[in-house]
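Case study 2.
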Amino acid sequence: MHVLVVEDEKKTAAFVRKALAGEGFLVDVLTQGDQVIPFLRTHPVDVVVLDIMLPKQDGLSVLRDLRRGRNTTPVLLLSARGGMEDRVEGLDAGADDYLPKPFGLSELIARVRALGRRAIPQQPPSLQLADLSLHSITRTVRRNNKEIELSTREFQLLEFLMRSTGRICERTTILQHVWGYSFDPGTNIVDVYMRRLRDKIDADFPVRLLHTVRGMGYVMREESTP
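Prediction:
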C-alpha cells in the first residue's frame, strides 16, 4: 500500500514515515500543502495522511481542492485541534477519518490500514499489454502466444510493472514493492533484473514494451522500436 504523508513538522513526519514503512507500506512525505495536488497527478496513492496546519496551503483547503477535482483517495486528517466542531469541519471538507494530535503510532497505523482496505480494489489475476499477457494465479507469462519462463523475482517485477502500465516507476519504488527494501541498498540490482527481463520479453519482438526513462526509472508501454 502506498501512503502519502503531508506534515511540515520534521520530527513528526520522520516518526510517521518510519512507523508506516516498518509495517511494509510505501511512504512518500511532503511538507507543503501546495505540493499535494501536483504530486498526486503523477503518483497515485492509496491513502493520504494530511496535517491541517501546513505552509503555502492549509490541509482543509488542499482537501477541498482534491474533492472538487473528483479525487476520491481516502484522507486521514491530522490536527492539534480535536474538538467536535473541528472534526465536523474536517469530515465535511471530505476527510474519511480524523485523528487529533498527539496520537499513538499504533492507532495511526490501524486507521491507515483500515482506509487502505477500503480503497484498494480486488486486483485482476490476468494482465495484458499488447501481445504480452501475465496470469498471477498460474504464474504464466506469454508473448504472442509463446510462453516465457521467468524466475520468481522476475515474475514479481514484471507483475508490478504491468500493474503500473503507463506510469514511470522509480528505482526506489521498485525496490520497495518488489524486494521489500525501504532503503537503497547501494547496488544496481534493479538495473540487472531489468536487463534480464528485457532480454526475455522484448529481445525477440519488433515492439518494445519495457522502456528506460533516463534519470527517472522504468515504464511499461507499447511503443515501436525507432
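The CA atoms of residues 48 and 75 lie 5 Å apart.
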